[in-house]
Write a structure and sequence with these properties.
This protein is of the alpha/beta class and about 775 residues long. The protein has 2 domains: about 375 residues, TIM Barrel (Alpha-Beta Barrel), CATH 3.20.20; about 300 residues, TIM Barrel. The chain contains 28 helices and 21 strands. The strands form 6 sheets. The chain has a 7-stranded parallel sheet. The chain has a 5-stranded parallel sheet with strand order 16-18-19-20-21. Strands 12-15-17 form a 3-stranded mixed sheet. Helix 5 packs parallel to helix 7 and helix 24 runs parallel beside helix 25. The longest helix has 22 residues. The chain binds the ligand Nc1nc2c(c(=O)[nH]1)N[C@@H](CNc1ccc(C(=O)N[C@@H](CCC(=O)N[C@@H](CCC(=O)N[C@@H](CCC(=O)O)C(=O)O)C(=O)O)C(=O)O)cc1)CN2, methionine and zinc ion.
């Protein structure tokens, strides 16, 4: 049975964030396990019904089944029963959520970025003694349940090689890949179970194939994928297999995919290309090897929101046919990275509203594009000529729209010089800042946000609905800022923050104020677990034309004699966490944002800020998966940060903050940011990054996080002290700062107060010993 055109995955959070609400209600005790299962099933059913309504077939396996209560990598850990020993005694949902979030007595799995996206997965811990079997039948049960509703779905599962390559070793010895045979055996049993349940097709994603940034070289990954899938494809009694290589360029590993013998191969033709027939021939692959097999050509971008250039997509489909396979239309990745439906949005400005509805394609519109292109390849492009023409007209109209290209912005970027990106001698800055700030050794600070309480969010929602006016909203936020300042003074923190109460999100807040962006009301995308963001839409040239952070900062500073940090989000992070235009290079977009931020940095300095933090938590996230593009990326990303920050006086202290990643590969770039102080996530890895920084000659201020803020657990004074003692081994005490791993917006006040109390006590204890 052949596979029809399809999408590699669909958003699972729900049009109204039903999944978030159900899961959080379960955690809070509002519903029980049955209630959660019912809500989850209802959402899954609604999504399937919607996809059929949009034109996918109900019973031809074109419906991907990629639902998850929390994370697709965690789902494989659960499928394999591969819980680390510290979780012993837990089972079912308790185990599943303990792995994700920890509980009162156990720390959760680590969380990190999924390839170059703003989605985070839970890192499996796999060692020689980790139990691995076909331990959980959720995938099969979901298939069977959907079958009962009248849908033949195609289960989507992270492949065994990617799963293990993304794992970290449990304990001291061995590599997770040592357990590949056991994992493959479990997948084999899963295949049999799915066949028995009636599944026609299963999709396995092996995105590790497209990345050079993993601990295992790409050639080795390709070799393992070939070996594993050749073996699994040779099994009797299994569904057909779609093996997908999403998130980047798989042309170099394509021959390995062909040699596995699986029925269908999925490739990303948005970020990647196909090999030419000649280069395939050189690898011994001929069109006859692909005859009768399916190539799911991912011509529709799964992670950005611009309407596809349909003619360009049709050309790619046509070219793909030259390889000898049956070519079908697909998405480049799962659509889990885009919101559900543009139809949920109305933008206030009528012209912008009309434009964005024409320019954008969220998940449901992308399904429409797949269905349309599918018709085009089946019945000839002439049958969709009207749609192709309309699409071309929209693209031309967009290019000509006011605001897309603003001469003043273009000229200012073009005029940027090396001097604009250079701050001058660090030793001189250090002395001037020390004299101005007069801080103790090991000064304490926090990363910016304080708990975003339900009350604060409700006030913002009420303001947005018009239930409270600007003055009332402002008063409410000022109340919150005052409480945050007083609290930090009581706790005796040295460098304060205003707490970011007024920000819905550290990127969206700025996008709402800069020119060139639009934001959404319902465009939620899962970031991790139940946490979502509404990525902003960067459609035009960017500039600052409004008051932004200064009034809030000034108010906070007026309440205290201690320095309060000005707090901004850097250009790379704004790009990484928004949906960004693709008609000009990212380097140029970054410089536009940098100059807009430079204006805000200057305004804060002018208002009297002695310390200004520009966060770049996504610096590592945007590192290209393809090694050959690293140098170029690091040059423009660092250059943009420098352009944003280098305008200040030597006595003004610039901080930056990095988190959520492994930083080993980008240490030189971190140094090149030339921030006076860099706070960096380090608690879970026990300060691992510090010796690295030292080795690279980094000798500016650094605040390795000592409190892992991803869990509600309160670190003890002893624990914090021991981390600081480790830190002073690598860092000069008057360059060492004491701070948490990241902002506190997802924490509650109770654990925040307890943890900060201990953090200040630990700093004082270690200070006394040096
Ligand atoms: N964009 C982005 N990416 C990031 C991060 C980040 O902070 N921002 N941090 C890292 C980890 N990712 C994270 C992503 C989201 C959240 C987070 O806290 N998200 C919140 C939503 C934040 C937000 O947009 N809040 C809005 C809207 C809140 C809301 O849901 N309001 C209710 C009404 C109010 C209520 O009753 O609570 C509604 O609209 O229905 C606001 O405060 O204004 C959530 O899912 O709950 C945290 C970390 C990496 N990537
Ligand atoms: C994800 S990095 C967060 C930085 C931001 N200033 C905060 O504290 O929330
Ligand atoms: Zn952070």
């Amino acid at each position: 049975m052949s596979l029809p055109s399809t999408i590699l995955g669909y958003p699972r959070i729900g049009r109204k964030r039903e999944l978030k609400k159900a899961v959080e209600s379960y955690w809070a005790g509002g519903i029980d396990a049955d209630g959660l299962a019912a809500a989850e099933a209802e959402l899954r059913r609604a999504n399937l019904a919607r996809l059929v309504e949009l034109g996918l077939g109900a019973d031809d396996s074109s419906l991907p089944e990629n639902s998850s209560l929390y994370d697709q990598v965690l789902d494989v850990t659960h499928l394999l029963g591969a819980a680390p020993e510290r979780f012993a005694g837990r089972e079912g949902l308790d185990l599943y959520f303990a792995l994700a979030r920890g509980d009162s007595s156990v720390a959760p799995l680590e969380m990190t970025k999924w390839f170059d996206t703003n989605y985070h997965y839970l890192v499996p811990e796999i060692g020689p003694d980790t139990p691995i079997s076909f331990a959980n039948r959720d995938v099969v049960d979901r298939f069977t349940q959907a079958k009962g509703w009248g849908y033949t779905t195609r289960p989507v599962i992270v492949g065994p090689v990617t799963y293990l390559v993304l794992s970290k070793p449990a304990g001291e010895n061995g590599s997770p890949l040592d357990r590949l045979d056991d994992v493959v055996a479990a997948y084999g049993e899963l295949l049999t179970a799915l066949a028995e349940a009636g599944a026609q097709w299963v999709q396995f994603d092996e995105p590790a194939l497209v990345s050079d940034n993993l601990t295992v070289p790409r050639t080795e990954i390709a070799h393992l994928v070939e070996q594993v899938w050749t073996g699994l494809a040779a099994r009797e009694n299994r569904p057909n297999i779609l093996l997908a290589a999403p998130y980047g360029d798989s042309s170099a590993v394509f021959p390995a995919l062909v040699r596995t013998g699986v029925e269908a191969i999925g490739v990303d033709l948005d970020r990647g290309t196909l090999p030419t027939p000649e280069s395939l021939a050189n690898e011994g692959v001929s069109p006859s090897d692909l005859a009768g097999r399916t190539l799911v050509a991912g011509v529709v971008d799964g992670r950005n929101i611009w309407a596809t250039d349909l003619s360009a997509a049709a050309e790619k489909l046509e070219a793909a046919r030259g390889l000898g396979a049956d070519v079908l239309v697909g998405t480049a990745t799962s659509l889990q990275h885009v919101p559900h439906d543009t139809a949920l949005e109305t933008w206030d400005d009528p012209a912008l509203n009309e434009n964005l509805h024409a320019w954008l394609a969220f998940a449901d519109q992308k399904v429409g594009e797949v269905v349309l292109l599918d018709r085009g390849i089946r019945t000839g492009l002439d049958s969709i000529r009207a749609e192709l023409d309309a699409n071309a007209a929209v693209l031309a109209q967009r290019a000509a729209t006011e605001g897309v290209s603003v001469p003043a912005v273009r000229e200012r970027v073009a005029a940027l010089t090396g001097a604009d990106r250079t701050r001058g001698d660090y030793a001189e800055r250090r002395a001037a800042q020390a004299a101005r700030l007069g801080l103790p050794d090991l000064p304490t600070t926090s990363i910016g946000s304080f708990p975003q309480t339900a009350e604060v969010r409700q006030a913002r929602a009420a303001h947005a609905r018009g239930d409270i006016d600007n003055a009332a909203y402002e008063a409410r936020m000022k109340e919150e800022i005052e409480r945050t300042i007083r609290l930090q003074e009581e706790l005796d923190v040295d460098v304060l923050v205003h707490g970011e109460a007024e920000r819905n999100d550290m990127v969206q807040y700025f996008a709402e104020l800069f020119d060139g962006f639009a934001v959404t009301k319902h465009g939620w995308v899962q970031s991790y677990g139940s946490r979502c963001t509404r990525p902003s839409i960067l459609w035009g040239d960017v500039a600052k034309s409004r008051e932004m952070t200064v009034p809030w900062w000034s108010y906070a500073q007026s309440l205290t004699d201690r320095p309060v940090k000005g707090m901004l989000t850097g250009p790379v992070t704004i790009i990484a966490w928004s949906f960004v235009r693709r008609d000009i290079p990212l380097s140029e977009v970054a410089d536009q944002i940098a100059l807009a931020l430079r204006d805000e940095v200057a305004a804060l300095e002018e208002a009297g800020a002695a310390v200004i933090q520009v966060d770049e938590p996504a610096l590592r996230e945007l590192l290209p998966l393809d090694q050959s593009r690293h140098a170029d990326y690091l040059a423009w990303s660092v250059g943009a940060f420098n352009a944003a920050t280098a305008g200040v006086e030597p006595a003004t202290q610039i901080h930056t903050h990095l988190c959520y990643s492994e930083f080993g590969q980008i240490i030189d770039a971190i140094a090149a940011l030339d921030a006076d102080v860099t706070s960096i996530e380090a608690a879970r890895s026990r300060m691992e990054v510090l010796p690295d920084l030292k080795e690279h000659g980094f000798a500016q201020g650094v605040g390795p996080g000592v409190w892992d803020i991803h869990s509600p657990r309160v670190p003890s004074v002893e624990e914090l002290t021991s981390l600081l003692e480790l830190a002073v081994e690598s860092v000069d005490p008057d360059l060492l700062w004491v701070n948490p791993d990241c902002g506190l917006k997802t924490r509650g006040y109770e654990e925040t107060i307890a943890s900060l109390t201990n953090l200040v006590a630990a700093a004082k204890a270690v200070r006394a010993t040096i």
